[in-house]
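A reminder before we start the practical. When you read a complex entry, don't treat the lines as separate problems. The point of joint prediction is that each chain is placed relative to the others, so the output describes one connected object in space. Small molecules and nucleic acid strands, if listed, are placed in the same frame. In the example below there are two entries. Take a minute to note the order of the lines before looking further.
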Amino acid sequence: MKKICKYGTHRVLEPAGALPQAAYKLDNAMDTAPNEIRIDVQSLNIDSASFTQIREEAQGDIEKIKAKILDIVDKRGKMQNPVTGSGGMLIGTVAEIGTALHRTDIKKGDKIATLVSLSLTPLKISEITAIHPDIDRVDVTAQAILFETGIYAKLPEDMPEALALAVLDVAGAPAQTAKLVRPGDSVLILGGGGKSGMLCCNEAMKRVGPTGNVVAVCVLEEDRQRLLSNGLCHHALIADATRPLAVLDKTLEANGGREYDISFNVVNVSNTEMAGILPVRDGGIVYLFSMATSFTQAALGAEGAGKDVTMLVGNGYTKDHAEIALAQLRDNPKLRKLFTERWA
Amino acid sequence: MKKICKYGTHRVLEPAGALPQAAYKLDNAMDTAPNEIRIDVQSLNIDSASFTQIREEAQGDIEKIKAKILDIVDKRGKMQNPVTGSGGMLIGTVAEIGTALHRTDIKKGDKIATLVSLSLTPLKISEITAIHPDIDRVDVTAQAILFETGIYAKLPEDMPEALALAVLDVAGAPAQTAKLVRPGDSVLILGGGGKSGMLCCNEAMKRVGPTGNVVAVCVLEEDRQRLLSNGLCHHALIADATRPLAVLDKTLEANGGREYDISFNVVNVSNTEMAGILPVRDGGIVYLFSMATSFTQAALGAEGAGKDVTMLVGNGYTKDHAEIALAQLRDNPKLRKLFTERWA
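Here is the predicted structure of the whole assembly.
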């Protein structure tokens, strides 16, 4: 093995000089370098954009989904969807902590969730034991490697594993919402019915205060009802985010005809960039959290429509994001109940 | 033709409901709707990421480049590179102003440059008369349509057309730099030798003041010398932006071992996202201006390395950007000379 590196470049097989996320292929041999942590993996939480793409390609056939996942990991040494480029995260037990690491927060045998993407995590699957397409989860017998800079969270003791996993999977979303939303803001959330969407809604409602307006856009009527009846937004409406002009009309109506201060796009399908851009005022913020986002569609689309908005790439990491995300469920029993019913 | 729309959706042939930039195919019939402007096109300035991709695919063969461009426009009704998704801009003469538009700033016969991307501009090419691969320019006999929201600039009278075109092509870059760079900042510019890079450098030097540090990374030694000898940065160094760890080492050394407050990535090739992310401090800004940027590589790469940075999608449009860009050349004779020598 090459000289060990805190970012894991010693496991990059091709292309040379790349970091693990950008690499086509990683070395997934399970001998552990002194600065690595080896994990006995129990489940993969596939990123929603990735799982949706694979499920559609496999036309919902579970065996084909299995085969596709095994094929990707076999070819790349990591579970990175070649179409979306995204990964997901995993849950498992610490099997070995490299001799050069001095970790006091975890020990061998602890249950952890990784908070870095599967798209840069060396993974070797022995067997896929079950696929849960409704929650994008894949149960496996597998091993994975966490690099020195790879972040993780020890699973909390006050909630079931599956519930913690569902929240940690999208931990960046509520922490970023907390940083950006100001009192009095009008906030548009596209994809409000999903995990990220609900956490964004919940955090936005806390931040905007009595004079703000939080509007969620969903695909399903049951999601719309669920958001409203649980007080997770002021208005919720049904629209297809791949049709930006229709979204523009409906969302402006839900905000008294005014453009929004900020939008969050957490939709898990392609071609929704402009639905989050057109309704935002000049000088406003467009937060792009979907792994199905096209960089050029956002950049050139905003320019083409003459929208002077600040567009942010959703960074899955920000300081204390795991604690902030878990606190959402601890502080809001209704949200916890919703998450438990749907994803745990 | 469908109901006319200020964003140009009446010309979208597929998929339904998409805006012109996201569309696969536009109607490039040259009958002008009441809210459109028709342009007799003189030259296309192909986006650098797009032209680089086409040139490499054609192995530098001019006839193959021509054929590729004609093929793209024939299939899509617009010059949008299917690999990079990007376009460029054009220069031409106003041939017709739709009857519903009341423009006082331009009239039939005026020379204008479009400031919206070719990736959303209906275009019909009769003939490619010349290709200038050194400046990504394609001379054509062609017609194009500008939508109601499509922005443009009348060519200034105090500089040659080709010079104005070279600057307007990347007009967003200096205006965005002006908004983000603060006195005392350390600023890293990847791709400093190109048009965007030089404009970013020039603007950053003005903004950081005496206590800041502007560091440019280039590929060619002649670019490095040119930047330094013209006072466009404090330090310039040679590095391959597709090798982020090598860039990290060299750039930190040029900033006294400290991480940067802000980086601008204006490189025109793929896989350079992490080179702009790793050298930036937690809480710093990463500005992604390259059309070769991968959204997922930026988002998941930053997360994977545990970098708590704010990543911005380069918006080609911001208020007064064309005037701000042209003023750069008017205010700095050395920069104007450099642009004239290389791109005009």
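Discuss with your neighbour: The first helix of chain A runs from residue 48 to 57. What might explain this?
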